[in-house]
Amino acid sequence: MAKSAFLVMDVQRTIVERFGDDPGYLPRLRRAIDAARAAGIPVIYVVVGFRPGYPEISPRNKTFGQIAARASAGGGFTDERATEVHPDVAPRPEDVIVTKKRVSAFAGSDLDMVLRAAGIDSLVLTGIATSGVVLSTLRQAADLDFALTVLADGCLDSDAEVHRVLTEKVFPRQADVVTIDEWIKTA
């Protein structure tokens, strides 16, 4: 029998503020998190964060190099507020919080170790952005032989068409893609 974990990825206060044009997102995600807990499925939060000075970031890294450059002007992902999960979907004390250093939830984190130690072989993916953490994590998790479910409306992207193509055409090759309501019925 599969043992699942529910991943809430990059739903940090500062990231939600940048993707905040869907007022229904956090309440939908909260319902899914509550359903996972009610079904006894562990909830794991994945956040992106770095040490002060960004020693983990190479200037050759196009995505994260820009973050490090902006951080020198006063922003970034090194302080508590930047790495804080949005309070509307905040973790409970029993939840695991994993800090990653790249786009995939597995890259530069101990996520795989946490999952293997708990005997987890199936993942439910949610997060911001569909074309970022969700895509990268899905690809790596599939290569690690996890069974996968993506909650399409539990993911956000700044480009609605990219979100649609990923959830309707790309993700179904490696995952079951369902809505939160559909998933809650089976959780």
Mean pLDDT: 92
Q: Major sheet: size, sense and barrel closure? A: 6 strands, parallel
Indicate the CATH topology: Rossmann fold
How many H/I helical runs? 8
CATH superfamily: Isochorismatase-like
Any idea what the radius of gyration is? 16 Å
Q: How would you spell out the order of helices and strands?
A: EHHEHHEHEHEHEH
Secondary-structure-derived class: alpha/beta
Oligomer: single chain
CATH architecture: 3-Layer(aba) Sandwich
Give the fraction of residues assigned to helices.
25-40%
Residue stretches low in confidence (pLDDT < 50, at least 5 long) are: none
CATH class: Alpha Beta
> How far apart lie the N and C ends?
14 Å
Strand order of the largest sheet: 3-2-1-4-5-6
Q: Give the number of DSSP strands.
A: 6
How many separate domains make up the residues?
A: 1
* Portion in beta strands: 15-25%
Shape: globular
Pfam family, one: Isochorismatase
Organism: Nonomuraea aridisoli
Keywords: Hydrolase
Domain Isochorismatase-like: 4-181
What does this protein structure show overall?
This protein is an alpha/beta fold. The chain has one domain (4-186): Rossmann fold (3-Layer(aba) Sandwich), CATH 3.40.50.850. 39% of the residues lie in helices and 20% in strands. The protein has eight helices and six strands. Strands 3-2-1-4-5-6 form a six-stranded parallel beta sheet, with helices on both faces. Strand 4, helix 6 (130-143) and strand 5 (147-156) form a beta-alpha-beta unit. Helix 2 runs parallel beside helix 8 (180-186).
